[in-house]
Design a protein that fits this description.
Strand content: 5-15%
Radius of gyration: 23 Å
Distance between the termini: 54 Å
Shape: globular
Bound molecules: nicotinamide-adenine-dinucleotide
Largest sheet: 6 strands, parallel
Length: about 450
C-alpha cells in the first residue's frame, strides 16, 4: 500500500481520540509511526491492539498496523526524538476556568520533546489552539531544541468527527497546512501524498490563518446548530414544526441541510470549549462582536438542556422530586463513547438536582459516564432503564432507540411520558401506543 508514496518516520504525541486515530491512519497510509502518551494505561491498551475508547472501524486498523510493524507505542520522549522526522502534536487543549484554552499539555509536550530534537525535522501541531499559539511555540521549541532553527513548526488543524474519525482522517474534506517555509509544506505534502493524490484539496497558508480555520469552522457549525434550535423555540411558541421548517430550509443550496438538525444541541470535547476559547481570544484581540455573538450561540445551546428538564417536570406533574426518569443515551453523540460536556449528562445533573431518581442506558458510553457520575444508576438494557419510570427521555440519537417498540416499553413504565430531545422518535406511533409525547420544536 505504501508505494509509490514516500514512507516517513513520524511520531504522534498524545494518543487520545485525535492522536490515536491519526497514528493508526498514518500507519495505514504506509508510514512508520511511533506514538507516545503520558498515560501508561492508554499506551499499554493501544499497544495490545485495543483502542482505549470506542471509535467505529479503529480497532481492526490498529491491529492490522501493529501486526504489520508500521505502528508502535512508547513512553520515551528520547525514543520519539530519535525516531521521527515529522512529529505531530495531538495533546488536549481543554477549557480553563475562565473559558480560554488551557495550553499546559501542549507546553509540557513541547518541553518534553524539544531536548531530543538534534537534527532537522518538522513539528506539526494538530491540536485546536487560539490564534497566535504556534508563533509562541516556535520560540519555545527553538530555544530548547539542540537543532535550534533546524526544527520547523507547522500547524495542520484536524477536522475529524468522532464516530466517523477513521473515514475523516483517511479521506478528509480538505487539508490545511499552516507553514513558515516551502520545505515544511513539502514535508506535509509527503505525509499526505495518498489523500492528495486522491484529490483532497490542500490549502497552504500562514500559521495564524491555519489556527483560525479550525476555530472559525467550529464556530460556524455551532452557530448553525444554535440557529435551528432558536427556530425550534419559535416553533414551540407558535405551534410550527421545526423538522418541516429545517427540511424546507435545507433545499436552499446556500443554506444546506447539514448541521441543521434541531434537538438538544452540541456537546463533546470540541465545539463547546472551542467557541468559549474563541470568545476569550476575541476579547483579548479587542473584537467584542465575536465574543458577544458566540456568547449567544452558547446560551441558546445550553438553554435546550434546561428546556428538556422543564418538559420532564411538567409531564410528571410539576415536581421531579422522587420521580423516576429513564435516560436513553449518555454519549454526547451517537457513534462515540465520549461524555465530555455531554448535553445528556447535563440534563441528568438537572434532573438529579431536582430530586429525580435517574436511570441511564447507553450502548457504549456507560463506563465513561460512571467515571464522572458514579452516583447515577446504570441499566444494561432500555427495558431495565425504563422499568417503573415516570418519564422516558431520549437524549442521544443512537439508531437502536428509533427501533424501540413503544407498545412493549409501555408495559414496563409507571407512566407513558416521553420527551424526545433528538427529534428521532415517531411521535404518532408512540401516541398511538398510549404515550404522551413531547418533541423539541414539534407540536
Ligand atoms: N476529539 C476530536 O474529535 C477532535 C477533533 C479535532 C481536533 N481535536 C483537538 O485535538 C486535541 C486533542 O483532543 P482529543 O479529543 O484527542 O483529547 P484526548 O484528551 O482524548 O487526548 C489527549 C491525549 O494527550 C495525552 N497527553 C497529555 N499531555 C501529554 C504529553 N505531555 N505527552 C504525551 N501525551 C500527552 C493525554 O494523556 C491524552 O491521551 C484537542 O486540541 C482537540 O480540540 C479533537
Amino acid at each position: 500500500m505504501s508505494l509509490p508514496f514516500p514512507r516517513i518516520r513520524l511520531t504522534v504525541i498524545g494518543a487520545g481520540y485525535l492522536g490515536l486515530t491519526h497514528a493508526v491512519c498514518m500507519a495505514e497510509l504506509g508510514h512508520d509511526v511511533l506514538a507516545i502518551d503520558v498515560d501508561p494505561a492508554k499506551v499499554a491498551k493501544a499497544a495490545s491492539g485495543e483502542p482505549p475508547f470506542f471509535e467505529p472501524g479503529l480497532e481492526p486498523l490498529l491491529r492490522k498496523n501493529l501486526e504489520a510493524g508500521r505502528l508502535r507505542f512508547t513512553s520515551s520522549y528520547s525514543e520519539v526524538g530519535d525516531f521521527g522526522d515529522v512529529h505531530f502534536l495531538c495533546v488536549g487543549t481543554p477549557e480553563s476556568a475562565d473559558g480560554s484554552a488551557d495550553l499546559q499539555y501542549l507546553h509540557a509536550a513541547v518541553d518534553a520533546l524539544a531536548p531530543h530534537l538534534s537534527r532537522r525535522c518538522i513539528v506539526v501541531g494538530k491540536s485546536t489552539v487560539p490564534v497566535g499559539t504556534a508563533r509562541r511555540l516556535t520560540a519555545r521549541l527553538m530555544e530548547r531544541a539542540p537543532a535550534g532553527d533546524e526544527v520547523e513548526l507547522a500547524w495542520n488543524p484536524e477536522f475529524l468527527r468522532e464516530g466517523t474519525a477513521v473515514h475523516d482522517t483517511m479521506s478528509p474534506d480538505r487539508l490545511v497546512f499552516g507553514v513558515t517555509s516551502s520545505w515544511s509544506a513539502d514535508r506535509l505534502r509527503d505525509v499526505y501524498a495518498m489523500p492528495l493524490c486522491n484529490g483532497t484539496p490542500c490549502l497552504v497558508m500562514d500559521l495564524e490563518t491555519a489556527e483560525l480555520v479550525k476555530v472559525a469552522a467550529n464556530s460556524f457549525l455551532a452557530t448553525k446548530i444554535s440557529f435551528i434550535n432558536a427556530m425550534a423555540e419559535v416553533c414551540e411558541a407558535s405551534g410550527a414544526d421545526v423538522i418541516r421548517l429545517a427540511a424546507a430550509l435545507a433545499h436552499d443550496e446556500r443554506i444546506g441541510g447539514r448541521f441543521l438538525s434541531p434537538g438538544l444541541g452540541f456537546g463533546g470535547g470540541c465545539l463547546p470549549k472551542d467557541i468559549r476559547a474563541f470568545r476569550a481570544t476575541a476579547r483579548a484581540l479587542g473584537v467584542g462582536s465575536v465574543d458577544s455573538f458566540l456568547s449567544e450561540v452558547d446560551t441558546i445551546n445550553l438553554s435546550r438542556r434546561t428546556r428538556v428538564t422543564d418538559l420532564a417536570r411538567e409531564m410528571v406533574g410539576g415536581t421531579l422530586a422522587g420521580r423516576h426518569a429513564a435516560v436513553l443515551g449518555i454519549a454526547f453523540k451517537p457513534g462515540s463513547d465520549d461524555v465530555r460536556d455531554s448535553p445528556s449528562l447535563a440534563v441528568c445533573d438537572q434532573l438529579t438536582a431536582d430530586g429525580a431518581i435517574v436511570r441511564v442506558h447507553d450502548p457504549v458510553a456507560m463506563d465513561n459516564a460512571a467515571l464522572v457520575r458514579p452516583d447515577l444508576r446504570y441499566a444494561d438494557t432500555v427495558t431495565e432503564a425504563a422499568a417503573g419510570a415516570d418519564v422516558v427521555l431520549h437524549l442521544t440519537e443512537w439508531p437502536d432507540y428509533r427501533a424501540i417498540d413503544p407498545v412493549a416499553l409501555g408495559q414496563v413504565v409507571a407512566r407513558r411520558n416521553v420527551v424526545d430531545a433528538r427529534c428521532g422518535l415517531d411521535g404518532e406511533y408512540w401516541r398511538s401506543a398510549g404515550w404522551v409525547v413531547r418533541i423539541l420544536g414539534r407540536p
